């Protein structure tokens, strides 16, 4: 964090704009925390998902448009975004993930892998298409009459694509098939399809609806948030990076809530770490040794949304054991301002900060119902809302905040 605070980029579901937002924590002159929109960049479409390059100079997005596409942007020094290019895809994408060489997209019945151009980081040639459905399976898992619709198959198909920390595995959560697909990744030869099929892992409960996953930094645990059951689960990852073994799961909801009133959204790890002094980075037999090896996140966060406006959403925090498994039920469950609409997406800041309340982690959370972007603080015991702003159009209309990333 510099003296000007934190900068975030926020995408929307429908508006062709990317918002640059600045968060300033409370200062030494008794200033209150503030969260303000500093810039609006013209976008190719509404962007439901944002992903930054490793050096945070490029932004990659899903595009909620017809035809469906993915897009790339240059992130400028003032925090604004400048469009580089777009590439069409087969179906609406729920998620993009990037390495230095490829962009991976998944949504509904299909997914794609594109090369990234070395010159400017824009999206290059399509090198692989992936199918998660045979023709007769396109409506598998579809639920008629549910709030918010099916999003062209995204709601009952694949929804996410996450890479393992060592870049050798890809995990795709599939709501409708109630499973996690695993793929091995080999990016050693430019232009060659990098994905090879691994295993289809059926969820531990019959109506979970896996939505998003997130790996532990050592690569040996994978977390999954379940859209239909509002559970968050931990899986052990085998040495091959493909086989998953369910360990346990915990609810995101307070006691007494009906899971049928909610749809879970996101899972993320804390950036508050302990370090494993016994980790040996020179052990060639450890396939999961990466630059992140030895980091032990202290907490796991998961969020859920209300299916109707009158039902508020929640964010839950869980303490983690040293091996990455979840220590027990949620330490705290925070009720969000609104249902969350299509969002309640959470993203922890890169570092903890000190405030009058002590040291705490900052977590950005988005809301599409009323257009709120909020910063939550978590001190290891309780959440609190630190600051909030609202995205509005020129005539005061609600802008549906989707996801946020920290620069």
From TrEMBL:
<dbReference type="Pfam" id="PF10282">
    <property type="entry name" value="Lactonase"/>
</dbReference>
<dbReference type="InterPro" id="IPR015943">
    <property type="entry name" value="WD40/YVTN_repeat-like_dom_sf"/>
</dbReference>
<dbReference type="GO" id="GO:0017057">
    <property type="term" value="F:6-phosphogluconolactonase activity"/>
</dbReference>
<dbReference type="InterPro" id="IPR050282">
    <property type="entry name" value="Cycloisomerase_2"/>
</dbReference>
<dbReference type="InterPro" id="IPR019405">
    <property type="entry name" value="Lactonase_7-beta_prop"/>
</dbReference>
<comment type="similarity">
    <text>Belongs to the cycloisomerase 2 family.</text>
</comment>
<feature type="compositionally biased region" description="Low complexity">
    <location>
        <begin position="273"/>
        <end position="284"/>
    </location>
</feature>
<protein>
    <recommendedName>
        <fullName>Muconate cycloisomerase 1</fullName>
    </recommendedName>
</protein>
<feature type="region of interest" description="Disordered">
    <location>
        <begin position="273"/>
        <end position="296"/>
    </location>
</feature>
């Amino acid at each position: 964090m510099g003296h000007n605070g934190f900068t975030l980029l926020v995408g929307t579901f429908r508006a062709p704009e990317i918002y640059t937002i600045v968060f300033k924590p409370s200062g030494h002159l008794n200033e209150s925390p503030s969260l303000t929109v500093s810039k609006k960049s013209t976008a190719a479409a509404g962007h439901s998902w944002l992903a930054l390059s490793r050096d945070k100079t490029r932004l990659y997005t899903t595009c909620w448009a017809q035809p469906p596409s993915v897009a790339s942007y240059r992130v400028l020094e003032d925090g604004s975004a400048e469009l580089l290019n777009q590439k069409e895809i087969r179906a609406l994408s729920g998620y993009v993930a990037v390495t230095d060489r490829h962009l991976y997209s998944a949504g509904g019945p299909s997914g794609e892998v594109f090369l990234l151009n070395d010159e400017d980081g824009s999206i290059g040639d399509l090198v692989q298409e992936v199918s998660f459905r045979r023709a007769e399976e396109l409506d598998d898992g579809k639920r008629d009459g549910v709030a918010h619709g099916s999003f062209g198959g995204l709601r009952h198909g694949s929804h996410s694509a996450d890479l393992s920390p060592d870049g050798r595995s890809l995990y795709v959560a599939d709501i409708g098939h109630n499973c996690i697909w695993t793929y091995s990744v080999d990016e050693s030869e430019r232009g060659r399809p990098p994905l090879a099929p691994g295993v289809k892992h059926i969820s531990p409960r019959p109506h979970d609806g896996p939505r998003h996953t997130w790996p532990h930094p050592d690569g040996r645990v994978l977390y999954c948030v379940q859209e239909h059951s509002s559970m968050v689960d931990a899986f052990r990852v085998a040495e091959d990076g493909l086989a998953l073994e369910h360990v346990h799961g915990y609810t995101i909801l307070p006691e007494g809530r009906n899971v049928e009133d909610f749809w879970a959204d996101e899972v993320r790890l804390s950036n508050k770490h302990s370090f494993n002094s016994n980790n040996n980075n020179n052990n060639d037999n450890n396939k999961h040794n990466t630059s992140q090896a030895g980091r032990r996140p202290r907490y796991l966060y998961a969020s859920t949304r209300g299916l109707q406006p009158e039902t508020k959403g929640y964010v839950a925090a869980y303490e983690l054991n040293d091996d990455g498994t979840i220590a027990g039920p949620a330490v705290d469950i925070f009720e969000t301002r609104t249902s969350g609409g299509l969002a309640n997406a959470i993203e922890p800041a890169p570092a903890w900060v000190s405030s009058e309340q002590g040291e705490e982690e900052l977590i950005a959370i988005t809301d599409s119902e009323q257009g709120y972007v909020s910063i939550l603080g978590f001190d290891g015991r309780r959440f609190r809302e630190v600051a909030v702003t609202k995205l509005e159009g020129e005539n005061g209309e609600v802008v549906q905040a989707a996801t946020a990333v920290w620069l």
